[in-house]
Amino acid sequence: MFDVVMDIDAYPLFLPWVADSRILTRGEGELTAELVADLAGMRHAFQTVDRFVPAKMVEIRLLNGPFNFLESLWSFEPVDDHSCRAHFSIAFEFHNMMLRMLATPVFSTACKSMVHAFERRAVEIGRSR
């Protein structure tokens, strides 16, 4: 599951609200990424710094974009040799009032379905191996 979360380049393949994504820089335990969100027909690019501990957690913080703040956390709890329990939380607020009114409901709905989208992707990848 950690590998699916870290496969940022593949996000447009399974996250419907992600129009584009790419890793900008990669270092030891940290990377920067850019995502382009398609929210209610409006595209918004944002950059994040993602700090991670392999197979344990990914902490995502906003570098810049249409938000006042965006913070999320993935944590992974092993269940057995082949499965884990994934926990996801996110907090965000858009910069301007109009975007807040139009995009917040869409982005909130997308965030609520994210764990399921990542689970489906993990199952898909597991079948192809």
Layout: helices, strands, pairs:
Blueprint: H1 2-6, H2 11-14, E1 18-27, E2 30-39, E3 42-53, E4 57-64, E5 67-80, E6 83-94, H3 97-128
Antiparallel strand pairs: 1-2, 2-3, 3-4, 4-5, 5-6
Number of strands: 6
Highest CATH level, the class: Alpha Beta
Structural class determined from secondary elements? alpha+beta
Largest sheet: 6 strands, antiparallel
- CATH architecture, please? 2-Layer Sandwich
Strand content: over 45%
Return the average pLDDT rounded to an integer: 90
- What is the CATH homologous superfamily assignment? START domain
CATH topology (fold) name: Alpha-D-Glucose-1,6-Bisphosphate, Chain A, domain 4
Helicity, as a percent range: 25-40%
Number of discrete domains? 1
Shape: globular
Sheet with most strands: strand arrangement: 1-2-3-4-5-6
Over all CA atoms, what is the radius of gyration?
Answer: 15 Å
Order of helices and strands: HHEEEEEEH
Description:
By secondary structure, the chain is of the alpha+beta class. It has one domain: START domain (Alpha-D-Glucose-1,6-Bisphosphate, Chain A, domain 4), CATH 3.30.530. Helix content is 32%, strand content 51%. It has helices spanning 2-6, 11-14, 97-128; strands spanning 18-27, 30-39, 42-53, 57-64, 67-80, 83-94. It has a six-stranded antiparallel β-sheet. It is globular and about 45 Å long. The two termini are 14 Å apart.
Notable features of this structure?
129 residues, alpha+beta, 32% helix, globular
Summarize the structure.
The chain is an alpha+beta fold and 129 residues long. It has a single domain, classed as Alpha-D-Glucose-1,6-Bisphosphate, Chain A, domain 4 (2-Layer Sandwich), CATH 3.30.530.
